[in-house]
Design goal:
297 residues; alpha+beta; Fructose-1,6-Bisphosphatase, Chain A, domain 1; 2 domains; 5-stranded mixed β-sheet; binds 1,6-di-O-phosphono-alpha-D-fructofuranose
């Protein structure tokens, strides 16, 4: 089944239009990556140096989303303030996740949260979420609250179409992989002890440095991804609105659980657009266990 047919049958009109716009623009982002790897001098609101590809993908998605007439606003990790538009859905995005991995050709991603409330908003106001994986394949993985579905881009003539790859994706019962960001010496107490226990239970350490790439394998194989609280950064690195909450929405739809170390990520109520949170996401049993490890330390 092709994406537009699936959206016509299964998506609310506004989310279908936004998803279709993202799909078309993701092909242009993927095609542009080899040509946009230079560093720019600008920095984003979090003080990180912006690469040409960060700015290029941001501007492309903002134009595509606002042109649908379904986005009330588009907020982005790469912009100080949201772009106002006319529509019913507030979109929060990380237009290019993992851009520091471009030169190494590691997987990259784009993350979108579709909120029913003006931003900043709690994850409980998410009505959908989507992530793009620019990897061995170009895939869209999304949920509108009724399961997690995946489409893959295929050549069709001189263009690309998106074909159904899987519906109602679920985390496997037996967790197999784990990946923790940051450097181990910076993790808060309790994280290292949990991390070491995973190796002892036969789980395999899989970390590529891009949230989307690391989470994508957790969804496929079961396990846990974390960018934990750090001693010097107790609120972690990943942004609540643009990264943690949308991925927690998808992960919960796939049968998993995501925590900031003590609270369900979807219950967080960020007061600012760029607010960050520690993130422990994946198989519920492992996330609950790391909550216990943090609580007891
Ligand atoms: P960039 O978008 O700056 O490459 O950061 C990617 C990211 O936000 C997230 O995708 C990774 O999980 C995390 O940073 C990796 O951070 P470390 O390089 O500190 O492990």
């Amino acid at each position: 089944m092709k994406l537009d047919e699936f959206l016509r049958l299964n998506a609310p009109d506004d989310l279908g239009a936004l998803t279709s716009a993202i799909a078309k623009s993701s092909v242009d982002v993927w095609d542009s990556i080899p040509f946009k790897t230079g560093l720019l001098t600008e920095t984003n609101p979090s003080g990180e140096t912006q690469k040409a590809i960060d700015v290029f993908s941001n501007d492309l998605f903002v134009e595509a989303l606002t042109s649908t007439g379904h986005a009330a606003e588009v907020a982005s990790e790469e912009m100080e303030e949201p772009v106002e538009s006319r529509g019913g859905v507030s979109v929060a995005m990380d237009p290019l996740d993992g851009s520091s991995n471009v030169e190494t050709n590691n997987p990259l991603g784009s993350i979108f949260g579709f909120y029913s409330h003006r931003l900043p908003a709690s994850g409980r106001s998410l009505v959908g979420a989507l992530y793009v994986t620019y990897g061995t394949m170009l895939t869209l993985t999304f949920s509108f609250g009724k399961g997690v579905h995946r489409f893959v881009a295929l050549r069709e003539g001189d263009g690309m179409s998106f074909q159904l790859l899987g519906v109602n994706l679920k985390l496997p019962d037996k967790p197999e992989v784990y990946g923790f960001g940051g450097s181990r010496k910076e993790w808060v107490h309790g994280v290292a002890r949990f991390w070491e226990s995973l190796d002892g239970r036969g789980l395999r350490n899989r970390y590529c440095g891009t949230f989307i790439g690391d989470y994508n394998q957790v969804l496929a194989k079961g396990g846990i991804f974390s960018y934990p609280a750090l001693v010097k950064k107790p609120r972690g690195k990943l942004r609540v609105l643009y990264e943690c909450a949308p991925m927690a929405f998808i992960n919960e739809q796939a049968g998993g659980y995501a925590s900031d170390g003590s609270t369900n990520v979807l219950d967080l109520a960020p007061s600012g657009l760029a607010e960050t949170s520690p993130l422990y996401i994946g198989s519920a049993s492992l996330v609950r266990e790391v909550e216990g490890s943090l609580a007891s330390s």
